[in-house]
Amino acid sequence: MTTNYAPIEIDFPHRTPLESAKRVAEFEEMLRSRRTIRAFSPDPVPQTVIETAIRAAGAAPSGANKQPWFFVAVGDPALKAQIRAAAEEEERAFYGGKAGEEWLDDLKVFGTDANKPFLEIAPWLIVVFQQNYGLDPQSGEKSKHYYVQESVGLASGFLIAALHYAGLATLTHTPSPMKFLGELLGRPQNERAVMIVVAGFPERPVHVPAIARKPLEAIADFR
Q: Residue 49's closest CA among 124, 120, 119?
């Protein structure tokens, strides 16, 4: 079988077991301090911070290295207002009965409703799109993408981790349906919006729901 595989050598650091344990413990502590924030400050965040976080997201693994993601970072107040208006229209239908009683009961602990002021207040909305297939911008030729949802999920996790490491609060907002985002942001037909990552500094004092994360034994097994 012929192949075009041409590997390159990289400088992959060798950590001692002690170094590895220390580094992963510090990383866990940093990530476990992350909480979803619903009240944001309008304080500005430099675009360069968002750019770096998106580059970090783009380092995620993907099926056949197709990198089937695209991020639109929205800081324009007028455009944020349009996104809020369209999102709240969908949210009113959701909370008006579309979600079903069980789902709405599960949301009561978070105190959420159809009003989403953070979509205007937070300095940045990062809309994550998944590219269901490749689309050449010149010829319009299509190409196959693999494990799209899994790849975009990984990239979104990288993005949230990078933003948190930068000292920013985040919220993943998923109005349903989200077709309006592609229309408002002029994205091509091969892309579908999967979430809005709201990013900025939290309003102080910072309040979050009183919830707990599952312990290790409830989320992992070792054989």
A: 124
Which tens digit of pLDDT belongs to each residue from 33-71? Answer: 999 999 999 999 999 999 999 999 999 999 999 999 999
The 10s digit of each residue's pLDDT in 89-119 is 999 999 998 889 999 999 998 999 999 999 9
Neighbours of 122 (CB within 10 A): 30
Comparing CA positions, the residue from 155, 162, 76 lying closest to residue 119 is 76
DSSP string of 36-50? B---B------HHHH
d(CA 77, CA 42): 11
The three-point CA angle 198-145-11 to 5° equals 75
Measured in Å, how far apart are the chain's first and last C-alpha atoms?
Answer: 37
Q: Which domain holds residue 67?
A: 44-105+116-203
Number of domains in the chain: 1
Quick check: is 58 in a domain?
A: yes
Q: Is 60 helix (H, G, I), strand (E, B) or coil?
A: coil
Give the Cβ contact number of residue 155 at 10 Å.
25
Residue 77's CATH number: 3.40.109.10
In a domain, 111, yes or no: no
Residue 38 domain-assigned (yes or no) = no
Residue 134 belongs to some domain of the structure? yes
